[in-house]
Write a structure and sequence with these properties.
- Helix content is about 35%, strand content about 20%.
- The protein is of the alpha+beta class.
- The relative contact order is 0.07.
- The protein has 3 domains: about 10-95, CD59, CATH 2.10.60.10; about 155-270, Phosphorylase Kinase, domain 1 (2-Layer Sandwich), CATH 3.30.200.20; about 275-495, Transferase(Phosphotransferase), domain 1, CATH 1.10.510.
- Strand 12 (about 325-330) and strand 13 form a beta hairpin.
- The protein has helices at about 65-70, 110-145, 150-155, 165-175, 185-190, 190-195, 230-240, 275-280, 285-305, 370, 380-400, 430-440, 440-445, 450-455, 455-465, 480-495, and strands at about 10-15, 30, 35-45, 50-60, 80-85, 195-205, 205-215, 215-225, 250-255, 265-270, 315, 325-330, 335, 345, 350, 405, 410.
- The structure holds adenosine-5'-diphosphate and magnesium ion (MG).
- Magnesium ion binds next to loops.
- The site of magnesium ion has 4 residues, from loops.
């Protein structure tokens, strides 16, 4: 057996729990070469009464105790909080060392109960977290669905009236997507890139019109130069007005900004073209005539009427009613279009969405109060009355093409634009000003031919209502609902 020889430095350390196998006397222990005097504090857990207590110990480490390692013991994580300081330079040097507990060493005491429940807790937390994610996803999907319910109402309503062409197009798209999302699909796939132009239908004043193919349907692309962005925006804004959709309003599909910066609006295509072109080449029997006048008036009535419901539809004054701005659909009905200068109004706050510029519009069809600039531009009702005047002119054009029987033969007038005989081809507001300066539209200009008054009871009754639209005093003009009711009454009589 090898005897261990220990050499002492002659320094003594303070000890309170002195090891019996060392030369400990009177609360001191001798410091061996390579050893350390230490002062330690430890938070000890007492299981019996579930409490913690701070316990201080003093003593000496020999070299064989691996003194240096022990002195750095507080750097090692342990279940109990502990801290230690060492010294070896003078007698009882450790007596004045009072290390403090360091929080960083906290490791909870072994708790069997906690350990066994930690898995359960993790499981529970994952369940709760998973549930929150699913709930948030459902809430998001519901919100998105609700946001688009306005535009999708037409596709889901089982008893809705006959679908527009554009509704068929949209419905195809929506039902084929399988995603359940309507409008977003239109936005995701840029219609401008998919549209294949077939033919140029013509040029409007600020636009180019193309018919083309998109999603296996023929639709119309109306292009605005980027300088006319305002007109594009206004027209798109009106089309996107809640509840504007109506069988006598041109079916809107979407709008887009093309790669070259041009703005585009996509609508239904109507092969018969504008009402103006249609009247140029079509004679109308009485029932066809009545359908055209009723649907033209119904279109304007839909615009002029504010609807108070869950989906609020503001009233719209068109401000550019002409026979070129109605199209003829497959059912030989009028559909209204061209909302580039239209204004919206809600009675609740009595505001119009824009300050109307009365120099815009088609001079030939402008009401006298617009031509003279006497219209009250702050009154939405005034713009509706101006619309009635222009609508009256369109009805006048339709009357020309209603065939009557005279002396056993069919008689019909040629289609002409209002005041064609007293105005240049493309009149300006100044031309209108000159015309109305000397002549009253109702008394002097828009004469009712004897054919309309003498031979046909329907045409005769209709023309007397229509003539009221031409009063110079806007308040003397009928409102659109009165016009609509009178025409429906005439249709009912005609059917007897
Ligand atoms: N949806 C359509 N279906 C058939 N023809 C159309 C359609 N849109 C425009 N057109 C043709 O193009 C012409 C000009 O279109 P329009 O929308 O009135 O342009 P602008 O507003 O610039 O006058 C119309 O008169 C008509 O002949
Ligand atoms: Mg037009």
């Amino acid at each position: 057996m090898v005897k261990k020889i220990v050499n002492y430095t002659g320094i003594i350390c303070y000890c309170n729990n002195c090891p019996g196998n060392r030369d400990a006397e009177n609360g001191t222990c001798p410091l061996a070469f390579g050893g350390q005097c230490f002062s330690a504090i430890e938070q000890v857990y007492f299981k019996e009464d579930n409490s913690y207590e701070n316990v201080r110990t003093f003593g000496c480490f020999s070299a064989s105790d691996q003194a240096l390692l022990q002195c750095r013991g507080d750097l090692v994580p342990s279940y109990n909080l502990r801290s230690i300081q060492c010294c070896n330079f003078t007698d009882l040097c450790n007596q004045n060392l009072l290390p403090q507990l360091k929080i960083r060493n906290i490791i909870p005491p072994p708790n069997i109960f906690m350990q066994s429940n930690i898995h359960l807790l993790t499981l529970l937390l994952s369940f709760i977290f998973g549930f929150i994610i699913i709930f948030a996803y459902i809430a998001f999907a519901y919100k998105r669905c609700k946001r688009h319910s306005g535009s999708r109402m037409y596709f889901t309503e089982p008893f809705s009236i006959k679908l527009h062409k554009s509704q068929h197009v949209l419905q195809d798209l929506v039902t084929s997507s399988g995603s359940g999302a309507g409008k977003p699909l239109l936005i995701q796939t840029t219609i401008g890139r998919q549209f294949k132009r077939i033919n140029c239908l013509g040029q409007g004043r600020f636009t180019e019109i193309y018919v083309g193919e998109w999603n296996a349907s023929k639709i119309v692309e109306k292009i605005f130069s980027s300088a006319e962005e305002g007109r594009w925006f206004r027209e798109k804004d009106i089309y996107e007005t809640v509840s504007l959709r109506h069988e006598n309003v041109l079916g809107y599909i979407s709008s887009d900004i093309l790669p070259n910066g041009m703005r585009a609006i996509y609508t239904d295509y109507h092969e018969f073209g504008s009402l103006c072109d249609y009247l140029d080449k079509t004679n109308l029997c009485r029932s066809e005539f009545l359908i055209l006048v009723r649907t033209a008036v119904t279109a304007v009535a839909h615009l002029h009427t504010e609807i108070f419901a869950t989906l609020k539809h503001p009233a719209v004054a068109h401000r550019d009613i002409t026979s070129k701005n109605f199209f003829i659909n497959d059912n030989k009905q009028c559909v209204i279009s061209n909302f580039e200068i239209s204004i919206k109004h809600t009675s609740m706050d009595d505001v119009m969405n824009t300050e109307p510029d009365i120099t815009l519009g088609t001079p030939r069809y402008m009401a006298p109060e617009i031509v003279t600039g006497t219209i009250n531009v702050r009154s939405f009702a005034a713009f509706k009355m101006a619309d009635i005047y222009s609508l009256g002119l369109v009805l006048y054009e339709i009357c020309q093409r209603c065939v009557t029987i005279e002396n056993n033969s069919f008689v019909v007038d040629e289609h002409t634009l209002p005041f064609f005989d007293v105005l240049p081809k493309n009149p300006l507001i100044d031309d209108m000003r000159k015309l109305f300066g000397t002549k009253n539209p109702r008394e002097d200009l828009l004469m009712i031919p004897s054919r309309w008054k003498n031979n046909d009871f329907v045409l005769k009754s209709f023309t007397s209502i229509m003539q009221e639209c031409f009063y110079v005093n806007p308040k003397a003009r009928p409102n659109v609902l009165r016009l609509k009711k009178s025409i429906i009454a005439l249709e009912n009589q005609d059917a007897l």
